[in-house]
Amino acid sequence: MGITWAGKILIVKDxxxxxxxxxxxxxxxxxxxxxxxAAKEALEIALEERPDAIVTNVVMPGxxxxxxxRFLKINLTSQKMPIVICSNKNQAVHHAxxxxxGADVYLTKPYTPEDLLSAIKVVTDWxxxxx
Length: 131
What we know:
Layout: E1 7-12, H1 16-28, E2 31-36, H2 39-49, E3 53-57, H3 65-74, E4 83-87, H4 92-101, E5 105-108, H5 113-130
Parallel strand pairs: 1-2, 1-3, 3-4, 4-5
Organism: Tolypothrix tenuis PCC 7101
Domain Response regulatory: 8-124
Keywords: Phosphoprotein, Two-component regulatory system
């Protein structure tokens, strides 16, 4: 019996521990996981692999998660890719800036695995409906 994937998720994390935890939970729920350790790498992977959703940090070396959102949303081939931002920053200005940059969901740490799954389901279902 083969595995039926729920979708492909690109996780952009510079922390191996966070990436492993997210991969474990999302993989357990049937998602195929693709990893990037930096936003620039994620940009290349997103354009090549066309994931069903992207989960990213805000603060990373080189390019931020906000910049990644902006680049993906101005590119015609990736502008409909849903993006979930996970961050420690919990002020209204950060949430508003994330939306302005193109993020579909902004999760504030700490969040539960169920919160992450719910966010991914919301953005992938929403993306399916408007595509």
